Amino acid sequence: MTEPSFIVDVRVRFLHPDGRVTDGRLAVGRPVQEPDHARCLAVLEGLSTPDCALHGNDTLQALIAALQHLAWEIHAFIERGGRVVDERDDERDLQSVFGRLWAPTPS
Question: Domain-by-domain residue ranges, the chain?
Answer without folding.
Answer: 6-95
